[in-house]
C-alpha cells in the first residue's frame, strides 16, 4: 500500500470471511511455537499498536494465551521514567528485544515515541523524522543480526466502536478497572492520531504494516493468528535431534 488514508480503510471484516478458521490456526500455532523454542534459530517480534479500546489486550489473550508461556513474553511501553528519558528513546526498547527461540509481543511499542509525542507536541517534525530513521535502523539490526521476524499490526477501530467500548468500561463491572477518564480526551484527538499514524506508515514501512479492521474481535484475531502462522511456517523449522 503506497498511500495510507485511514479514514477510507474499513474497520469491519469482509462479509466473506470464515469465522471458523481462527480456532484451527491457533491450535496449529502451539506446535510451531514449540519448534521455534526448541530450534532456537529465529526470534519473533510482534508489534501491536492501536488507539485506546482497539482491543490490544483481548487480542493477545486470545491468540497467544494457549501457547507455552515459557517461550512467549509480553511487554507494554508506558510513559517513560526519568531514567529512561535520560537515555536515547530506543534504550528501553532494546532491553526487551526477543532472544532466539522466543516470541516477544509489544503491547504498544517504540512507535509510541513518534505517535503520542507528536500528537501532544512533545517533539517537532525534525525530531520525529530522526526517530523514524532510527526505528528503521533498529528493526533492520534485529532482522539482520538476530534472525528476527517482525510483524507489525495497527488495530483500526472506528470512532463509534471506540466510544461504545470506552462507555462500556464505565458500566460493566468486569471492565471498570480499565476505565481512565483520559481515554476520552485521547479519543477526541482522533484526527491528530490518524495523521501521526499515516506518517508513521509512510516512513517506517520497510517492514510492512498490517492495518487490521478491529471493530469485530474475531476478525482481528484471525488476521494476527494467520500472519503469525504463515511467518512460522515459512521458517521451515525442525526439531533438533539428540545432542551428541
Keywords:
single chain, 244 residues, alpha/beta, 5-stranded parallel sheet, Rossmann fold, 10 helices, globular
What can you tell me about this protein's structure?
- This protein is α/β, with parallel strands linked by helices.
- It has one domain: Rossmann fold, CATH 3.40.50.300.
- It has ten helices and five strands; from the N terminus they run αβαβααβααβαααβα.
- The chain has helices at residues 21-39, 56-64, 82-85, 91-94, 112-119, 125-146, 159-171, 182-187, 190-203, 217-234, and strands at residues 43-50, 72-75, 103-107, 148-156, 209-213.
- Strands 2-3-1-4-5 form a five-stranded parallel β-sheet, sandwiched between helices.
- Helix 1 runs parallel beside helix 10 (217-234), helix 2 (56-64) packs across helix 10 and helix 5 packs antiparallel against helix 9.
- The chain is globular and about 60 Å long.
Secondary-structure map:
Blueprint lengths: L20 H19 L3 E8 L5 H9 L7 E4 L6 H4 L5 H4 L8 E5 L4 H8 L5 H22 L1 E9 L2 H13 L10 H6 L2 H14 L5 E5 L3 H18 L10
